[in-house]
Structure formats: structure tokens, C-alpha cells
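Pipeline run #58 for the internal structure catalog. This entry was flagged by the ingest filter as a single-chain record with no existing model, so it goes straight to prediction. Upstream metadata was stripped on purpose; only the residue string is passed forward. Reviewer on rotation: M.T. Logging verbosity set to normal.
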Amino acid sequence: MPSNSSPPLHPTREREKALMSNSPSPIRVLVWGENRHEKIEPHVAEIYPDGMHTTIAAGISENLGDRAKVSTTTLDEPEHGLTEEVLADTDVLVWWGHAAHGEVADEVVDRVHQHVLSGMGLIVLHSAHWSKIFGKLMGTTCTLRWRSEQDRELVWTVDATHPITEGVPNPIIIDQQEMYGETFDIPAPDELIFISSFSGGEVFRSGCTFRRGNGKIFFFSPGDQDYPVYHHKDVRRVIANGVAWAVNDRPRRIPTLLRYDTNDFFNGHGYTGPIAD
């Protein structure tokens, strides 16, 4: 059983060599799913018989092909499938949760948080806006307005030059979807890529990027357990594009406070606090 402490973070030796080479290895993608609705609600199991996490993973694989090595894990795995060893071997983590945010152990959230700060990419999907990890990274409530009444959603591209929009129509038309509306209590995004409009006239910042420490974060709202949105080819393309964008091509390392002597610009020294023991 791995320790819950936070040792120095770094990629495996093989990955470090690959990042320095001209032929990088495939993106190591882990899709994390709560996997509760699919087990207890027959209509959800009919839409996603193998679980939403599997459907999301399949969409990434079909779009990125050999560029990605995609695996999945779920809430009920030991340590939620997010051990130190697993996260150290993950380039991009994709997160979907809804009904059981509170069941995610705080020590696992802290572990994921440290890996994002060190450079692991994070894709936050739909109702994961209220996950512990997204709230911890945003520092706000991440609340919004919502309604589940089979609204039509139009996902409008507002930054057509961004790589996450590559190959995506403008707008993406989703015939039936849960409505998410403003105000969405998040910090101002680093980049606003998509906004959505709904049948009732609401609008929502549905595709946003953030950077925290050395990590890249992409929030994308389309997708719900009650609707087959993760089978939609354009939604799958956006998620795959987000994965490709979120990769950090430098060796993973968490930002560290170091002391530098005068005229020594290159050799920092460890620092523990203003009062010596």
C-alpha cells in the first residue's frame, strides 16, 4: 500500500528519456469515473452499458489512436484507483463524477492536487465542476444553475485558433442535454474556448482552460448520465483535443521555494521556513 505522504514528484525514467527524445511515447491517459449511476439506474446502464468512463476512454482512443495509451479506473477501486504510482505514470487525468463527490477521500484529492501542480494535465467533465479536486484548484464554490429537461444545447466556439477546437463544427449541436447556466462561480479562465446556449435562453461558459502550478486544466461541460452525450462524435473530439493540449512536455516537477545567494542565478538551496529549528 503506497503512503499517503507526498514524496518528490517525477516521471518514470523511461518517460523522462522519451520527453527528451524526438519520438515521445504515447500520452498516458487515465479516465476516472464515479461509476455509480450505471450500477443503480437501468436507464443509465442502457445508455452506457460499460460505464461512462469506458465510453469516454473509447472516444479518446478513436480520436488520438496511437498517440495515446488510455486506461480507466473508478471510485470503488482501492484508493479510488489513484495511487501515487498510478498518478506518477499518468500524463493526463480525465475526471467525471456526480453523485458521490463526498466519498472521494481527502488524502486522494491532496495527492491528485500535488500531481496537477507538478505538471499532470486534468480534464474536468460536466458535473465534476463540483468535485473536490476542481474546487480545491479553483478556490471557489464552482456552483451554477441547472435544469434537466431535455434542452437543446448549442456549443459555440469563441476561440477558433485554439487547438482544442481543431476539427470541431461551430456550433456543436446536442439535441438533448442537461442545462448549465450562469452564473458559474469560477475564477476568470485563462482561456475561454466555448460558450453554450440552451433552449430556455441561458448561456454558459462551457469550455475553459486554467493553469495551476505546472499543470494545465480543461473544463468541458457537455455530458450527463441521463443523455448519450459521450457518444456524440464532436464531444468526443473536443475531449480528445483537450487531452492532447493538457500534456506537459517537460519533466514533471512541483514548484519549490528555493533560496539563491547573491550572484548565483543557477543553484537554489532548500528552505523550510523563516524560523530555524
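catalog note: Residues 1-13, 16-23 have pLDDT under 50 and may be disordered.
catalog note: The chain has one domain: 20-270.
status: ready for reviewer M.T.
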